[in-house]
Amino acid sequence: MIRVPTFAGGTAFAACVASILEVTPGELPDLSKVHPDDVQAAVNDFARPKSLAYIEISLDEYPNAEWAALDRLGYFILRGPRFDGVEHAAVFLGSNVVHDPVFLGAHPGETFAVNRMGTWGVGIFVPFNPLFVRRHDRR
């Protein structure tokens, strides 16, 4: 994982994706222009040539009780609402924030201060066998 700050025109989520995939923001599709319902598909379109799939589960609240299970995921993206209503994202390893792209970059002084109410997404990149996918794509 590399630390990519939030970049001009980008989102904290896009910076987290770039960080985990170790790519520059310019290599990613512009996720700020993608409809919110299509963001996961856009990330998967980008990750697929790397034999990765992005999977996100939705939680109805901040994952206080789930940290023990999340400790086993490796790097993951947690995204949800900040206190001002803006969606925020950070890279976690277990219950620890290892990269907050907003704090690192565009908004000095902010930390992963979030509204613990609302819907949260926990996203991971999962490797897959590209030969299996190619075989099934031919149908």
Question: What report would you give on this structure?
Answer:
With 139 residues, the protein is an alpha+beta fold. It has one domain: Cathepsin B, Chain A (Alpha-Beta Complex), CATH 3.90.70. 25% of the residues lie in helices and 24% in strands. The longest helix is centred in the first third of the chain and has 10 residues.
Radius of gyration: 15 Å
Question: What portion of residues belong to β-strands?
Answer: 15-25%
So, CATH architecture? Alpha-Beta Complex
Assign an overall shape: globular
Main CATH class: Alpha Beta
CATH topology (level 3) name? Cathepsin B, Chain A
Q: What separation lies between the terminal Cα atoms?
A: 36 Å
Contiguous uncertain segments of 5+ residues:
105-110
State the total count of DSSP E strands: 5
Q: Main β-sheet, in a few words?
A: 5 strands, antiparallel
Which class of secondary structure composition applies to the elements? alpha+beta
Widest β-sheet, arrangement of strands: 1-5-2-3-4
- Number of separate domains: 1
Q: Please, what is the average pLDDT?
A: 78
Element order: H for helix, E for strand: HHEHEEEHEH
The helical percent reads 25-40%
**Number of separate helices:** 5
